[in-house]
Amino acid sequence: MSTEVDAGLSAGFHLLDQTASTAATPVDALFTALVILCGSVALAVCALIVFFCVRYRHGSSAARAGPKRTLTWLEVAWTLTPLLIFVGICAWSARDYLRLYRPPPEALPVAVVAKQWMWKLQHRNGRREINELHVPLGQPVLLRMSAQDAIHSFYVPAFRLKQDVLPGRITALWFTPTQLGEFHLFCAEYCGSEHSHMIGRVVVMRPDDFSRWLAEGPAQPSLAQYGFALFRQLGCSGCHAAGSTVHAPLLDGLPGRRVHLQDGRAIVADDNYLRDSILLPRKDVVAGFEPVMPSFAGQVSEEDIQALIAYLHATGETR
Ligand code: HEC
Ligand SMILES: [Cu+2]
């Protein structure tokens, strides 16, 4: 792609990798602060070791008597100062961490399925990719990720982002790319003999190039349309449709809503709740309904589950 600035994969020595997402700057700031802090403590300890070695060496005339009195304020000061520094670092990193896990609502969703040994990605309009992720510059992207077999980890060093991808649950990751180019994508969790081949790239494009790219490729149903087809094929609609004879909850607009359960708990219908509803229907039974829903474990693939979830999300969007 000649219009692209090929920045990401360029060779050469960098102390830190490029900063190509909005997550990178705060992560670098925290990392630098920790290196400076730990470095200064280590240097101070080394300097004192050398100083004491010389000062109290065998035969020196330095005074060796203990202190005559204890200085309470000094002890309190050197206990409280590090405490405050570390609590401060904890608060600082917690703030950044929480921000990393709160995607903006307008983020572009991408379904990611990790398997031995590749990344399978699917955009909202149905366009699929393997080991490559194309994203638009300056626009937040939300990855909904799950694994088909072992634990994998989605790692883009230039974005300073790493998130485990697990079998049995959906983990999310969001970022806003801030630089055009291509960036390394690694699996950062040893996942079997060909783990080291589980690599790919993230391609950040200009928004108009991205729209064009997204529209290319074979025509296929969008993720939500495919999810809707599954919803009918698997018989979900037989129970969940408005006119059904089975007493089952309507699912329109369910994602993000608060659900009251039979056992008195109330939980927010996040992606993992939706996933568990399909695979482990007995786990969270909705209040006022009989637990008659069968489990679809073994009948649906990870992609199918992502598509069903995309369909459920789409029912809540104004079309
Ligand atoms: C035999 C009828 C039946 C079928 C088939 C069925 N469900 Fe259900 N489903 C129910 C009932 C009844 C409940 C409420 C009780 C419960 O939570 O188990 C429910 C609950 C749910 C919930 C939680 C709803 C809420 O309001 O929190 C989701 C999500 C769901 N089903 C999705 C699906 C999907 C997706 C399929 C198809 C893959 C499906 N269901 C197939 C009967 C069914
Ligand atoms: Cu892996």
Could you walk me through the main structural features you see in this protein, from its secondary elements to its overall organization?
The strands form 3 sheets. Strands 3-2-1-5-8 form a 5-stranded mixed β-sheet, with helices on one face. The chain has a 5-stranded mixed β-sheet with strand order 4-10-9-6-7. It contains 7 helices and 12 strands. By secondary structure, it is α+β, with helices and mostly antiparallel strands. The structure holds heme C and copper (II) ion.
Helix-strand blueprint:
Elements: H1 24-55, H2 72-100, E1 108-115, E2 118-123, E3 128-130, E4 132-136, E5 141-147, E6 152-156, E7 161-165, E8 171-175, E9 181-187, E10 199-205, H3 207-215, H4 223-233, H5 236-240, E11 258-260, E12 266-268, H6 271-279, H7 302-315
Parallel strand pairs: 1-5, 4-10
Antiparallel strand pairs: 1-2, 2-3, 5-8, 6-7, 6-9, 9-10, 11-12
Helix pairs in contact: 4-7
Bound molecules: heme C (HEC) and copper (II) ion.
Describe the structure concisely for a colleague.
The protein has 319 residues and is of the alpha+beta class. The chain contains 7 helices and 12 strands. Copper (II) ion (CU) binds at residues 114, 152, 187, 189, 191, 195, 198.
Summary keywords:
319 residues; alpha+beta; Immunoglobulin-like; Cytochrome Bc1 Complex, Chain D, domain 2; 2 domains; five-stranded mixed β-sheet; binds heme C; binds copper (II) ion
